[in-house]
Amino acid sequence: MITKMRKILNILFVLTLIVAAVGCATLGLKSNGSLKPYKTSKLDNGLNILYVNDEKLPYISTSLVIMSGFAADPKDQTGLTAAALELLNKGTLTKSAEQIAAEIEQMGAEYDANITADYSMISLDGLAWQEDKILSILSELILKPKFDDQEINRYKSRTLAVVQQRLDQVSYLASEIFESFYYKNHPYGHRDIGTMADIKKLNKTSIQNQFGMIARPNNTWLVVVGKYSGDIEDRIEKYFGGWKNQAVAQTQYPAIEAFQGRKILLVNKPDAAQAEIRIGHKGTDRRDPAHVATTIANSILGQGFTSRLVDRIRDQLGLTYSISSSTDFRLQGSVFEIRTFTQSPKVGQTISEVLKVYDDFHKNGITDTELKTAQKYMIGVFPSLVETAEKTAYNLIILRIFGVADDYLLDYQKNIAKATLAEVNSSIQKNYDPSNLKVVIVAPKDKVLSQLKSLGEVEVVEASTFLK
């Protein structure tokens, strides 16, 4: 399922955003320090292409990145984009799902589909000498989808079961509820695969219409990685040149609801073995000039085993095994989030201690020693995050989505090294806000509610409320 891959992508996304944000077009195939050689081009129909060369192994990886995700779904039909993406390899106008699966298996290739709020992706990877066949299959999937009624019904049954299963995955449930609680009526707060009511409404016409609105060459990047042939551009023209260019409707997003103070939501799940906690507020724009300083600050607050949150909450107090902080960057509004879990009797203490760490971080900033340690670590880890062609391509395409220049990636280590203590502490004052927070706890109400009264007004809802 697409949703299984979303968690993996989010992890990669967080790692990438620690170190990079790239976006403008480059001319010519070139290598930039530790980056693999890359170039971009564009077909007449508007399809942008990113090439990242890697001659070490005889493989090729291809991905179509559509610059629309689940946030582009109509308000009254959530889950349409996820459904279309999941159904692409379940039959085309000329091949059945079984035929497609057999062709991919015979090549020893791998197919994947993935969705986020802002973009969607389908990928097909295989051996270099299968290049033409891979491009042929990939183009057929996106240009000739069938959206067979029988496959749609199977998808609906599977996806309805997934929604029900999520109630038993407390960590996943907490993150999903936090997004819904934070974003409210904004499309970012919708479940990627849709509500149960909307899943039941899925039909061929609605799926076709939605996919047709977003899957257009002028709304898509083709990413080609590996040992591709010298005539790769001719082959791409052959398979994708006939894809019709059409205007792409711009989604009109409502404003993300502003809030003040501390908003606490307790989600009652009596059978939860542990309490999941999410604490957050408005995040920074990825294009903020202070991004480097803000990222350094977060690495000190909640990234890695030497961070303040880990040191205090995990190591000193033993309240959790894992705690972290990060910003989920999105085009229309990001969110900063602290994530952890603990035993139900320790929820109140855990949240109180987290807030103490966060308050001190905001009030007093970081020290010069912390800054130097973070800089050394971030500079040192950078090469491992762009060491392969796939990682280079991932950075490049993600950062193109956010419209940030390639110089950010190329000069990353230099920019980290020259960040000053004053700059980082200024970014903390500007971008981190412990006084205005939304808090979600998923736990048994009878074990937790009394612990929360000193923290602020608490709204209580049943976990089953989100099974919809």
What can you see in these coordinates?
- With 468 residues, the protein is of the alpha+beta class.
- It has helices at residues 2-19, 80-87, 97-107, 131-143, 149-166, 170-183, 196-201, 204-214, 232-240, 291-302, 308-316, 347-364, 368-381, 389-401, 407-410, 412-418, 421-431, 445-452; strands at 38-42, 48-53, 59-66, 110-115, 120-127, 220-226, 262-268, 275-282, 323-328, 335-342, 437-443, 458-462.
- Strands 1-2-6-3-5-4 form a 6-stranded mixed beta sheet, with helices on both faces. The chain has a 6-stranded mixed beta sheet with strand order 9-10-8-11-7-12, sandwiched between helices.
- β1 and β2 form a beta hairpin.
- 46% of the residues are buried.
Short overview:
By secondary structure, the protein is α+β, with helices and mostly antiparallel strands. The chain is built from 18 helices and 12 strands.
Q: How many helices in DSSP terms?
A: 18
Beta-strand residue percentage: 15-25%
What's the total count of β strands? 12
Main sheet summary: 6 strands, mixed
Structure class: alpha+beta
Global shape: globular
The sequence of SSEs as H and E is: HEEEHHEEHHHHHEHEEHHEEHHHHHHEHE
Unreliable stretches covering 5 or more consecutive residues: 1-29
Distance between the termini: 19 Å
Mean pLDDT: 91
The main sheet orders its strands as 1-2-6-3-5-4
Q: What is the radius of gyration?
A: 23 Å
> Helix share of residues?
40-55%
